[in-house]
């Protein structure tokens, strides 16, 4: 199958690569770019383990072809921490024990990252609804909700207090 050249920004860096038209974004990220944070759980858009951010929206990377992302801005979990400082959602999952095995965590973090930009001051119910496309088999979700609440509070703080 003839390959297509794609160009996209991934975690702030421009990436150009030749991909087969059938290559899923999640495979492109993991196998061609070695960004293995996006996990593959179901490959049928149910679990959310592969969630990344594309042009300001949460997207399950198993539902997109890499060629569909030509020209897009993609953020993966590897792009959340800046200069060694965890993003508030990462800190929240760490502080509130929002994970056990960690398999769902990259997708949870990426969904929480976008969700809190969509709704910076959510209720618990809104958090549960906003995160409902991401499944976890371990935590029972309570600590995931707490982690998102922690991150929401941290993101509301003025920059000097949040540091
Ligand atoms: S692997 Fe993409 S939603 Fe499950
Ligand atoms: S922490 Fe194990 S699947 Fe979520």
Helix content: 25-40%
Q: Poorly predicted ranges (pLDDT <50, ≥5 residues)?
A: none
**Which molecules are bound in this entry?**
FE2/S2 (inorganic) cluster
Alpha carbon gyration radius: 16 Å
The CATH topology of the largest domain, please?
Ubiquitin-like (UB roll)
Number of helices: 6
Which series of helices and strands comes N to C?
EEHEEEHHHHH
The appropriate CATH architecture of the largest domain is: Roll
Strand % is 15-25%
Total strand count, please?
A: 5
Tally of structural domains: 2
Kindly provide the name of the CATH class of the largest domain.
Alpha Beta
Structure write-up:
The chain has 163 residues and is α+β, with helices and mostly antiparallel strands. The protein folds into two domains: 4-77, Beta-grasp domain (Ubiquitin-like (UB roll), Roll); 88-157, [2Fe-2S]-binding domain (DNA polymerase, domain 1, Orthogonal Bundle), CATH 1.10.150. 34% of the residues lie in helices and 15% in strands. It has six helices and five strands, in the order E-E-H-E-E-E-H-H-H-H-H. A five-stranded mixed beta sheet has the order 2-1-5-3-4, with helices on both faces. A hairpin with a 2-residue loop joins strand 1 and strand 2. Helix 2 packs across helix 3 (105-118) and helix 2 (88-95) crosses helix 5. The longest helix has 15 residues, at 142-156. The radius of gyration is 16 Å and the shape is globular. The mean pLDDT is 96. One FE2/S2 (inorganic) cluster binds at residues 40-43, 45-50, 60, 62.
